[in-house]
């Protein structure tokens, strides 16, 4: 059995949120990682690709208020607050790399914590929805989260984030360190969540698989965007094929060249 039900998700978010980032600069102390970055996360599933150290996690942290930032971020036209708790209340949830579950608490308790903003009845209702969408989590409701496998913990972490009915769900490398079958399940789950009405922004190293489920993608290198476009076009573009999919230089198909040209250039 898969981890989630093969039916439309009940754990949808509220609305189809649209995030706009303009002129974003962020980093650590004097070390600026992102410089003057602009991007849009439209309803659906957007993936951010890029090599190690490109600034992908930094981007999610800046949106989530975990580090300071300069620039403008709006969610459905409203300025996104700067403090994390207010950002969460505005409907943004982050599943950080490493999942950050409470290992000594059960699956049910971890999920309940994800609904801390909700009243008791609403929390119970969403817990029931989570158990409907993820029947295996119901089976494991009383298991301590710390005793689950990496993939299982990732499922709990995503379901926990969905408990708050976010408008925007951000996933930082959800497939990191997982077996291929679990990677497929997780990425399909991200797709399901987007289809159920929560906008998803996902950082992934599994370029090919991520582009296969995403609507749109951005490629980040050394803190700047080097390409963006519809996921299908990005997958065929020479910039992605050569850098991330192992295609030899010169092995670019004419269709991929056309795809690359068709992409909206983001950086000169
Ligand atoms: N807390 C921190 N303090 C100082 N520098 C940091 C901190 N976190 C990250 N960095 C640096 O910021 C840069 C971007 O890191 P970031 O984690 O955003 O990259 P990434 O694209 O997510 O990479 P990866 O795929 O390896 O996770 C790197 O040079 C990294 O060393």
Q: Which series of helices and strands comes N to C?
A: EEEHEEHEHHHHEHEHEEHHH
Spatial ordering of strands, largest sheet: 6-7-8-3-9-10
> What is the radius of gyration computed over CA atoms, rounded to a whole number of angstroms?
18 Å
What's the average pLDDT? 87
Pfam family, one: ABC_tran
Organism: Ideonella alba
Domain ABC transporter: 19-247
Protein name: ABC transporter ATP-binding protein
Structure report:
The protein is an alpha/beta fold and 268 residues long. It has a domain of 178 residues: P-loop containing nucleotide triphosphate hydrolases (Rossmann fold). It contains eleven helices and ten strands. The strands form two sheets. It has a six-stranded mixed sheet, sandwiched between helices. Strands 2-1-4-5 form a four-stranded antiparallel sheet, covered by helices on one side. Helix 3 packs parallel to helix 6. It is globular and about 45 Å long. InterPro entries: AAA+_ATPase (IPR003593), ABC_transporter-like_ATP-bd (IPR003439), ABC_transporter-like_CS (IPR017871), BCAA_Transport_ATP-bd_LivF (IPR052156), P-loop_NTPase (IPR027417). One of its GO terms (molecular function) is branched-chain amino acid transmembrane transporter activity. Pfam families: ABC_tran. Keywords: Amino-acid transport, ATP-binding, Cell membrane, Membrane, Nucleotide-binding, Transport.
Short structural description:
The protein is built from eleven helices and ten strands. It is an alpha/beta fold and 268 residues long.
